[in-house]
């Protein structure tokens, strides 16, 4: 999880939240990591940074990544962890944090 957060922060991703889905029935993974980028190019850069950081530091690669074509919402599947990188309005629209409101949510402070 730390390498994913590091990859996000290296490209100035913000409003990082980690939803712990353990113990919730019907989930496809154990954690959601959700963050925001300001533009499609930043969303793509954050996704690239996450992939590079996890590959170098944890020897992990995503099983699948979708959404890079338009980079409004990129989803990266790491098995037990799903990473979601959103544009602000798309994140607000889908509101994943409230979809899983019974999950324990950890908010990671933004870097200045």
What does this 3D model show about the protein?
The protein has 4 helices and 6 strands. It has 112 residues and is an alpha+beta fold. Strands 3-4-5-2-1-6 form a 6-stranded mixed sheet. Strand 3 (64-66) and strand 4 (73-77) form a beta hairpin. The longest helix has 19 residues, at 40-58. The chain is globular and about 35 Å long. The chain starts with a helix and ends with a strand.
In short:
By secondary structure, this protein is α+β, with helices and mostly antiparallel strands.
Helix content: 25-40%
Give unreliable regions as ranges: none
How many alpha or pi helices?
4
Strand content: 25-35%
- Please summarize the sheet with the most strands: 6 strands, mixed
Distance between the termini: 21 Å
Average pLDDT rating = 94
Strand segment count: 6
Shape: globular
Order of helices and strands: HEEHEEEHHE
Secondary structure topology:
Layout: H1 2-10, E1 14-20, E2 31-36, H2 40-58, E3 64-66, E4 73-77, E5 81-86, H3 88-94, H4 96-99, E6 104-108
Parallel strand pairs: 2-5
Antiparallel strand pairs: 1-2, 1-6, 3-4, 4-5
Give short descriptive properties of this protein.
single chain, 112 residues, alpha+beta, 6-stranded mixed β-sheet, 4 helices, 6 strands
